[in-house]
User: Which sequence fits this backbone?
């Protein structure tokens, strides 16, 4: 082959020097031809590449260590080069639901992993990195292959990768922490709302009671994101119940006027639980048992999908219940929410009892005033009668005197 014009070859091998040291050699050989293209001699070049080999070994070991660490990391780790995912660790597969060959596909758009409300932030920060800027960790939202939302915090760095620059990202799933923070924030806000409601009921007059109940049902209904909130009260002998107050979200049909004088015997499953002072929590109305047929029918006639009802008691006696309906979507309530709803029910019944007491007091005061007026009138009549008797006695005495005088005169 050395007699062929234009022939060249290269190879890499190791040599052992006289002192026993091993060196890496890169050899390049090519034919040199005359002007007619006929080879006239062979030229060879030797390069000592030991340093380069050591550097490659270091890089290879470094990459191997990186991958080993990355594969065992509890966080998602990726490398994005020119908008393409060129590396994704095992955790990325586990959490996001994609296989690595899907991540590495030339058709794969990494933006499909980003929630729409976080996409602009991601693109902005990636662009800052490519301009050489340092970007501090930031929070954003991801979407898995099954469209599940994940809250995360990401740390990114611009690195050298192969022949160019790439972005190394470490992503920590903070969904549980975010959910806990949201639940805590929800609870604090709900407790503040309950405290405000309780304060509003302290000094209301009986005339303001109904209006304040309606305002409270609206406030708690909007806060909880339900479609309908309502208050039911039983009559004195517990044979009927009335929907006395109701709030409905926009687009939800009111039921207040339809739910009057309902016989409690028609709802045995419902009343069974209320009489035991139990909450009635129905995440899915369609799943009600066969022995709740009446309840299921009336709830479905109102298009209710989920509901929570808490009993309202007074002196260990059931007097009514407070209810929350979700019509448009199925809804779940936390135990903390249910406990606080019972507190609102207690606020309602305390206010109702105070209203009834004040109305009874006002009624008694009215009856007492009426009785006092009657006694005053009777007393005045008695005095007038006494005065009239005195006048009559004086008149009679005068007549007697006049008669005696007449008898004593000479005829």
Assistant:
């Amino acid at each position: 082959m050395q007699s062929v014009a234009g022939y060249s070859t290269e190879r890499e091998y190791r040599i052992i020097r006289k002192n026993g040291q091993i060196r890496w050699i890169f050899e390049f050989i090519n034919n040199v031809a005359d002007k007619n293209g006929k080879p006239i001699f062979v030229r060879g070049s030797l390069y000592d590449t030991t340093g380069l080999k050591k550097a490659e070994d270091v890089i290879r070991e470094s990459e191997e260590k990186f991958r080993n660490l990355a594969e065992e990391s509890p966080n998602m780790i990726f490398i994005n080069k020119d908008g393409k995912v060129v590396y994704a660790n095992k955790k990325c597969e586990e959490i996001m639901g994609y296989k690595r060959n899907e991540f590495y596909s030339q058709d794969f758009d990494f933006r499909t992993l980003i929630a729409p409300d976080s996409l602009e932030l991601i693109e902005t920060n990636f662009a800052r990195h490519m301009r050489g800027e340092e970007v501090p960790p930031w929070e954003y939202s991801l979407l898995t292959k099954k469209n599940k939302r994940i809250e995360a915090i990401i740390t990114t760095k611009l690195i050298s990768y192969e022949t160019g620059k790439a972005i190394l990202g470490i992503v920590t799933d903070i969904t549980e922490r975010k959910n806990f923070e949201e639940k805590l924030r929800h609870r604090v806000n709900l407790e503040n709302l309950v405290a405000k409601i309780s304060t509003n009921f302290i000094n209301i007059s009986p005339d303001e009671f109904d209006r304040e109940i309606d305002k409270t049902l609206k406030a708690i209904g909007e806060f909880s994101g339900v479609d309908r909130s309502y208050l039911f009260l039983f009559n004195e002998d517990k044979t009927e119940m009335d929907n006395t107050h109701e709030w409905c979200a926009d687009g939800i049909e009111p039921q207040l006027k339809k739910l009057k004088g309902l016989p409690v015997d028609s709802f045995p499953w419902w009343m069974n639980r209320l009489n035991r002072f139990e909450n009635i929590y129905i995440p899915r109305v369609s799943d009600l048992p066969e022995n709740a047929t009446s309840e299921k029918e009336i709830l479905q006639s109102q298009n209710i999908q989920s509901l929570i009802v808490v009993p309202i008691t007074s002196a260990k006696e059931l007097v009514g219940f407070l209810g929350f309906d979700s019509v448009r979507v199925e809804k779940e309530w936390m135990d903390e929410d249910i406990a606080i709803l019972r507190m609102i029910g207690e606020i309602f019944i305390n206010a109702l009892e105070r209203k009834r007491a004040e109305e009874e007091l006002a009624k008694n005061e009215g009856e007492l005033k009426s009785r006092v007026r009657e006694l005053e009138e009777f007393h005045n009549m008695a005095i007038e009668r006494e005065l009239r008797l005195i006048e009559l006695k004086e008149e009679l005495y005068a007549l007697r005197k006049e008669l005696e005088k007449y008898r004593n005169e000479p005829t």
